[in-house]
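> run fold Transglutaminase-like domain-containing protein
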Amino acid sequence: MSPHLSPRSTELRRRFAEEARSERPDLAQLCVLLAAQADGSLDEAGMDAVQIELDELAGRLPFRPGGPRSWATALAELLGSKLGFHGVAADYQRLESSLLHEVLRRRRGLPILLSVVWMEVARRAGAPVYGVALPGHFVVGFGDPGEQVLADPFGSGRVLTGPDAELLVAGATGAPMDPSMLRPVDPLEVVLRILNNIRAWAATRPECSDVALWAIELSLLLPSHPARLRYERAQLLVQRGDFVTGAVELESYAEVIGAVDTSAAERVLGQARAARAMLN
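> ok
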């Protein structure tokens, strides 16, 4: 991890890693720890308040013993219609749209964060709910595959018909929807996707390289993550002027990939030499 981390950041990352490796990772807690890394004003009381608010929202749901459509409708009525949770295009330009406490405060956010709100409220109320990562647009699913009902929290919880989902996929990919796109996504995959969104947001803002760095470093704490993230972290360290650490990381990555791609390893070693040369 980055040198010179504050005691608070070190502790947040320890707790994030511990939660991610627990038997049943708590999605809301991981999102809260992630948000605390981004927002230094989010203290323990504020982190607890997020969980309390999700509990309270679940308590406001009427008892729905019916099927998946009943649950989807109940969530849409409470969170979408009554409380106004939804998303707009401008939310993609705000880091707050990826931070759970801010999404609860503003009742606005990216599709995946609004889906986290939907999932966590529904889960607490006993609904059979899970995330569904349609290409370019995260939604929530209720019920088993044979009776699956999809809802779009970004669209205030609108229940999606089959053609609605197909249109979302076609708009994002230009290709027809594949049944594999409807599989439930586990909590750690949700968190990795949130961190990917944060990295993408920071990538277009060179002044936010610190955000990109902590997003990569939290991703590396997850039990499963793309190996290439180590390379991205090394490059980012060099860009931020930490030439020695960046070079060491590049050399380490080159050693890993050398067994399968010697030419790529040589290119990475060349980057490491260039990073060290910047010290002269």
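The two ends are 25 Å apart (CA to CA).
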